[in-house]
């Protein structure tokens, strides 16, 4: 989609976000509460169904459009982390789910009757070493899998109806390839038994949890695709996740740059606006350039994704460059405001905490660098 095509979408998102100003987010942050009204508004406007095909009640938009939606949410000072998984978890179901599975779940998600916002992958002992996860799903007869184990950093589990779960169905030592033996399931958390969710309080309001599975029974019909091929299935979802979160970081960076520029024009010290001083100008200009450079990589990754081409390297680079740009812009913005940057009412300290996450998650800096070194530059595998 061209910038002209995206303009109405961006405008509509900005108009919606105008109804959720800083004081709304500050109150939620103090209480560590979920932005239910905001998520409901996004759902009713159809933005969270952006990537669901029209035949299932969605908007049938491209990844570029979805990225623009998430960028504008963050550029407006809001936080899309409360619901972004509903976009990127779609990839696994859309690309590898059966026709019956898509018909069963997608229309309800598109209407807002169902939420698919929980992504159960990371574990305490494996982290980003996904192939070492220990949660097991053992076949019990023809109709059921029994799941046991634990997931960590499963955000929005308390506010989601469905979870996309990755579990081991074949012991690692018995798998033909190291990338096989993992399977993906859709878990209906409204009815399942043996599931325990415990919130984790973090430095920002992220609604994240740890989840325990105690002989939890999942219908075999909830298996996505073939048993043992789950790791391959979720890779597309992970690329979508990186692109969308990179877009959020671009939005954050734009918010910080705009906030700092406005303040630098208005704040007068020693008889002149502080923005007249190069010591204040240059960091703002540098943050802006860094953001624009990252923005181009995000656009390239999104274009490759929606064309069906391999975008692993571009998605990883987009996420890393955008996360670094947003963090640099956050630090610059706080520095520009001086003491006022630490005051809650300016929203800078909240956004500062929120954007810091993305240089760590959903994949750490070192893993991105290792991926590029091995898969792009041909260097020996380091892990």
Descriptive notes:
It is built from twelve helices and ten strands. It is an alpha+beta fold. The protein has a four-stranded mixed beta sheet. It has a four-stranded antiparallel beta sheet with strand order 2-3-7-6, with no helix packed on it. Strand 9 (268-269) and strand 10 form a beta hairpin. Helix 1 (3-17) packs parallel to helix 4. The longest helix is centred in the middle third of the chain and has 37 residues, at 230-266. It is globular. The protein starts with a helix and ends in a 7-residue tail after the last helix.
Q: Which fold name fills CATH's third level, the topology of the largest domain?
A: Butyryl-CoA Dehydrogenase, subunit A, domain 3
Round the mean pLDDT to the nearest integer and report it: 95
Strand content: 5-15%
Low-confidence stretches: none
Main sheet attributes: strand count, strand direction, barrel closure = 4 strands, mixed
Pairing-aware structural class of the strands and helices? alpha+beta
How many structural units, i.e. domains?
A: 3
Distance between the termini: 38 Å
CATH superfamily of the largest domain: Butyryl-CoA Dehydrogenase, subunit A, domain 3
Number of strands: 10
The value of Rg in angstroms is 21 Å
Global morphology: globular
Physical arrangement of strands within the biggest beta sheet: 1-4-5-8
Top-tier CATH class of the largest domain? Mainly Alpha
**What string gives the helices and strands in order?**
HHHHHHHEEEEEEEEHEEHHHH
User: What is the count of helical runs?
Assistant: 12
Helical content (DSSP H or I, runs of 4+): 40-55%
Secondary-structure arrangement, i.e. CATH architecture of the largest domain: Up-down Bundle
